[in-house]
Amino acid sequence: MHPRPSVRKVMWGRIAILATVVFWAIYVVTTIIRQFIESSGGFRFTMEAVGYLIVVTFLTFSALMYLLARQGALYRFRAHVRVPRAELDRHFRDYDSAVTVLVPSYAEEPAVVRGTLWSAALQEFTNVRVVLLVDDSPNQKDPAARARLDATLALPAQIEESLEGPRSRFAGAREAFAAERAAGVVVERRHIENLAGDYEAAAIWLEDMAENEPMEDHVDEFFIDQVLMGLASELRLSLLALRASLDQASYPDADRVLELQLRLERTFTAKLTSFQRKSYASLSHEANKAMNLNSYISLMGRDWREEHTAGGVILRPVEDAADADLIVPDTPYLLTLDADSLLLRDYCLRLVYFLEEPGNERIAVTQTPYSSFRGAPTRIERIAGATTDLQHILHQGMSHYGATFWVGANAVIRKQAIEDIAEVESVGGFEIVTYVQDRTVIEDTESSIDLGTHGWTLMNYPERLSYSATPPDFGSLIVQRRRWANGGLLILPKLWNQVSERRFRRERVLARELWLRVNYMASIAWASFGLLFLLAYPYDSRLLSPVVFLAALPYFLAMGSDLRDCGHRFGDIFRIYGFNLVLLPVNLAGVIKSLQQAITGEKIPFVRTPKVKDRTAAPALYVIVPYLIIAFSVLTFARDLQAHNWGNALFAAFNATLAAYATWMYIGVRNSIVDVWLALLNWLYVDKKKAPVAAPLLVDPSKPVDWSSILYHGDRRLNRDLRRKGDRRRRVGVR
Asked: Which residues form a coiled coil (predicted)?
C-alpha cells in the first residue's frame, strides 16, 4: 500500500503547480517581453530570445506535467480503500473463469525465469495457466546455449511437480468438507482444527522452500522475503485467527470455511507449460516480444494439428480435439509478465476483481506499474531504480486524469479488448494476427492508443504489487533507455486519430489528458534537444533570470519528496540530474532513430536488454560523449567567468560537477577505458568477409530429387535448376 498523503502534502502539491505557472509567466513578462520593449538587440538577439523561450517553455511544461500527474497520484492514494480479504474470497468462491499468464523469454538465465514462474504459479487465483513463451531458436548449436535452453524448458514441469504434493492434500480436504457441507453437516471444532492444520502445513512448506532457496543477489532476497515468506506470513495470519476461533469456541460459518479451503487449494494449483513459436513455420518469427505474444494469443481457443512439410512444421486448425496435437485453451483474461519480473501473492486476485467490479466493463488493461527491487549492489542500478519508482507514481496519477498507458512488464488484459484491435494479414500464405503492435519498440504505448480509439480504457491499480529488474551496468542500461526513447514521436499521429474518433462518439476529451499523453510520448525528444541547446549554445546573459530557477524549484522539491516516500534519499534529485546528463546521447540516439523510421518507413530492430551477470560493454560513442559534456561545461565556465557572465558560469559549473560525478559513479573511468579500447579493437580488426552463399538449388544434381520440396514450394527457380541439371547430364553424355 502507498502511504496515505496528508492534507498538507496535497495542499503543497497544488501550490507547486500554481507556483510553476506563475513563475513562468513572470519570466516571460519581466525578461522576454521587457527585453523586446526596452532594447533593440537585432536579429540575433531576437532569435536567441525566441529560441530560449521555446526551450524554457517546453522544459517547464514537462515539469508541470510531472506535478500534475503527481497530484493525481496523491488523490488516488488518498481515496484508495483496499478490498477486504473476505470480499475477495466471496467473489471467487464459485468462480470458474481462468487466466493465462504469458511469460515471454529470450536468452534468459534459467534462475531468473524460475523466480518469475514461481511468483505466477503461487497466485491466489483459480485456474491459473502459466505459459513460458521461449523465443530462443529450437536448433541451438552452441553447447552452452543448448544447455541453457534445455534448463529453461524443464522449469514448468519441475514447478508443477513441486506443487503436486500440497495441491493434492488441500484439494482432498476441500472435497471432503464440501461433501459434508452438502449433506447438511454444521461446522464443528474438528473442521476448524483440520483447517488450521492445513494452513500451518502450507506455511511450513513455503518456509522450508524459502530456507532452501539460494540467495546470490538482491533479487533472490526479494523473492524469498516478499514472494515466499510474504505468502507464508499471510497464511500464518489466517492460522492465528483460526486458533483464536478455537480458543473462543466461536467458528466461521460453512461458506467461510469453504472459502478458506479454496484459498489454499488455489494457491498451490497451477498448470505450467512452455511454447516455442519458432518451432512452427506458420507463425511469425519477427524478433520482438510483441510478436512472441501475438503468436500464442492467435492460437488460443482452438485445436491444432501439426503438419510436417518441406518448409517446416505448420499448424492446421482441426474441429475434433481427438485429432489435435496442440490444444490451446481460451481464457477471458491474459496476464503478460516479463521474464525478469516478480508478482506479489494477490496481484492477479485483486486486479481481476477490479476488472469485474460494476462500471469497469470497458477497462481493457489494468496493472500495477512495476517498482524496482531494493538493495541493488551498484550505484547505477540504484539510481535507475529510483527513476523507475518515480515513474510508478506518475503512471498512477495519469490514471486519475484518464491518460493511462500500458507499461509492458506486467498487465492483466481483457482478451476481448485486444481482439477488437487485432489486425490480420497474410504472410507467405499463412494468416498472421497482430494484437499488440510491433511497429515501434514501445509496443505497449502504441497498443494503449489503439485501445482508446476502439472505446476501451486503461487503469493502473493504486498499489505496489509487481517488481522488475533494473539494468545493473551502463552498457545494458543504454539498450533499455535507447529503446524507451524510440517510437513516441511515431505514435503521436495515432493520438490525433483517437481524439477524432472519441469526439465523433461524443466523448469528452479534456485538455489535461492530451497534455499528459503528449508529454509522455514526446517529452524525451524536446527535453533532450532542449538540454543540448542549454549546454552548447552561449545564450545572451540578458535572457537569464532567477525566476527560471524559481519556476523549476517546485518540480525538484516535489521529486525529492517522492524519492523519500519511495525509500530513496532527497539528495537523489542531483544524482538523477547527473544521470540524465550522461544518458543525453542515449536519449538523442533513440529520438533520431524515431525520425529515421518516420522517413524510411522501416521497422527499428527490437534489441532486448541484456540480462547477464557480467558487465555489458557500452558503445564507445555513449562513453565518450559524457566526457565531452564535462570538458565543454568546464570550458564554458572558464569563458563565462572571464566575461563576468555569472548566470551562465554557475549553470556550466553545476553541469560539469554533476556530469563528472555521474560519469565517475555510473560509468567508471576504468570501464570507460576498457569500452573505448574494445571499440577500437573491433574497428581495427575486421572479420574476414565470407563469400556470399548462393541460394541453394531446389534440385541438386548430385543428390536424389527432393520431390517434397518441389511439390511444396513450386518455386520459379525450379525451371532454372532443372535446365542446369539437364545441361550437366548432356555434358556427360546422358540422354
From this structure: none
Written as one string, the DSSP assignment of 124-167 is S-SSEEEEEEE-S-SS--SHHHHHHHHHHHHHHHHHHHHHHHHH
pLDDT tens-digit map of 48-102: 899 999 999 999 999 999 999 999 999 999 999 999 999 999 999 999 889 999 9
- What percent of the residues of the chain are helix, what percent strand, and what percent coil, each to the nearest 5? 60, 10, 30
Q: Which of 379, 572, 590 is nearest to 471 (CA)?
A: 379
423 close to 383: Cβ distance less than 8 angstroms: no
Gap between the Cα atoms of 16 and 565, Å rounded: 17
- pTM of the predicted model, to two decimals? 0.91
Q: Which ranges of 537-619 does DSSP label H, i.e. alpha helix?
A: 546-565, 572-582, 584-600
In degrees and rounded to multiples of 5, residue 302 shows phi and psi of -135, 165
Count of C-beta atoms within a 10 Å radius of residue 359: 6
Look at residue 316 and give its three-state secondary structure. strand
Find the angle CA(553)-CA(554)-CA(559) to the nearest 5 degrees: 100
Identify the helix (H) or strand (E) that includes residue 93: none
- The candidate with the shortest Cα–Cα distance to 395, out of 310, 459, 299, is 459
The residues, ordered by sequence, that sit 6+ positions from 117 with a Cβ below 8 Å of its Cβ are 103, 130, 132, 155, 156, 159, 272
Dist. CA 444–CA 407, nearest whole Å: 6
In single-letter form, the type of residue at position 60 comes to T
With contact defined as beta carbons under 8 Å apart, do 467 and 371 qualify?
yes
The stretches in the chain having pLDDT less than 50 are 721-735
The side-by-side arrangement of strands in the sheet containing 271-275 is 271-275, 128-134, 99-105, 333-337, 410-414, 363-367, 457-460
